[in-house]
Amino acid sequence: FVDNFSNFDRSRWFVSDGWSNGAHQNCIWSKELVRLSDGVLSLGFEKRKLKDREFACAEIQTKQRYGYGVYEARMKTGTGSGLNAAFFSYIGPQDKQPWDEIDFEVLTKDPSKVQVNSYIQGKPKNGKLVDVEGGADKGFNDYGFVWEKDRLRWYVNGKLVQEVTDPGELPTHSQKIFFSLWGSDKLTNWMGAFVDPGSKVTMEVKRVAFTALGQPCQFPESLACSISNSN
Fold it and tell me: What is the pTM of this model?
């Protein structure tokens, strides 16, 4: 599929609303902070008291699970210490599956970089901070990963930035695709000390696509067009 967000496809997307992912998160997911305008999906983070938290944040996830293939998104993010703007795939105990995950995470304290990593059976693997030329906050950038049975590759703006071939460090379970923008006042070593941004912070997404291995590429800029899945 390719989703250019000309409309919000509720048959594809589930909007997280009314809970948090745990004590590490200082915000509650709110559907009110998921917006669509002129072909751009925006996810927001702002001061808004919900339940026991002082902030509200936003997340969407696919209803369907996907396996080996090319995952890609075109997005940009605001800035702020203690925030995380993420494009990733995930499956876990909520779905009665082991925790497997493949990530792009912009820790918005420093939008000049994006962190790539994966989780296998809940254990973090392959973490690496890589440069985003021009900055993740200054314009839209293309983030993509190619997940194969014997290899996992991450790309930023078409450039290979990380590759893993160790069989013990490769996900094996089909996953849902997520976008999220959230904050933490506990994970300071990783995300920086949380600072109230004072106004709404947004993460914007122009396109997301999944192309199964061996399928033709679906749009000219797609990674699936420019790389060979067999090499």
Answer: 0.95
- Please give the average per-residue pLDDT across 78-85, as a whole number: 97
Q: In this structure, what token pair is assigned to residue 44?
A: 């927001």
Both tokens assigned to 32: 């009110």
CA angle at 102 for the pair 224 and 154, rounded to the nearest 5° = 45
Where are any strands of DSSP class E within the chain? 2-3, 13-15, 27-29, 34-37, 40-50, 53-62, 69-77, 83-91, 100-107, 113-120, 123-131, 141-148, 151-156, 159-164, 176-183, 201-212
Q: How far apart are CA 32 and CA 49, in angstroms?
A: 13
pLDDT tens-digit map of 89-108:
999 998 899 999 999 999 99
- Of 159, 224, 194, nearest to 81 by C-alpha is 194
Phi, psi of 168, rounded to the nearest 5 degrees: -75, -5
Residue 199 Cα distances to 55, 79, 185, 195, angstroms? 11, 11, 17, 11
List residues with catalytic annotation: 101, 105
